[in-house]
Amino acid sequence: MKNTILILAILFSGIFSTNAQESETFDLTIEVKGIKENKGKIFIAIYDSEENFLKKEIGVIADVKDKKATGILKGLKKGSYAVSLFHDENNNKKMDTKIFGIPKEPYGFSNDATGFMGPPKFQDAKFNLDSNKTITINVN
Fold this sequence. Notes:
Elements: H1 2-22, E1 25-33, E2 41-47, E3 58-63, E4 69-77, E5 79-88, E6 107-109, H2 122-125, E7 127-129, E8 133-138
Parallel strand pairs: 1-8
Antiparallel strand pairs: 1-4, 2-3, 2-5, 5-6, 5-7
Protein name: DUF2141 domain-containing protein
Organism: Polaribacter glomeratus
Keywords: Signal
C-alpha cells in the first residue's frame, strides 16, 4: 500500500511540474537607443514565427524621453521571437514611407538586424526567450 501511494505521489508531482513548466511565461524589456528627437512614440511589435514576421504582431507603444524609450512585453511563452519597431515622430500612428515603401521615420529590429533592399529576415532578427530578458535596439 505504501508503494502504491508513493508511486501515485511521484506521478502526480510529475504531472503538476510539467504543467507548471508549460505555463511558465517571461517578460521582455526592449530598450530603444539612437533616438534623435524627443517627440512622438515608439511602436514595438513582436513576432513568434517566420510566417507572421512583419504581418501579425502584438506589441506595445513606448514614450520617448531623453532620447530613449523602453517597452515591456509581459507574459511571453518560452520560444524564438523577433522584434521590429519604428519611431512615429509625427504621432500619426503609422510608419511614413517614401517612394517604393522606404521608411521616412527611424526604425529598428532585434539583433540590430538589417536587410538588403528591404527588411531583414526573421532568422536574422530572432532570439531565444527562456527567462526574463532585456534587449537593446538601435534605430536607424
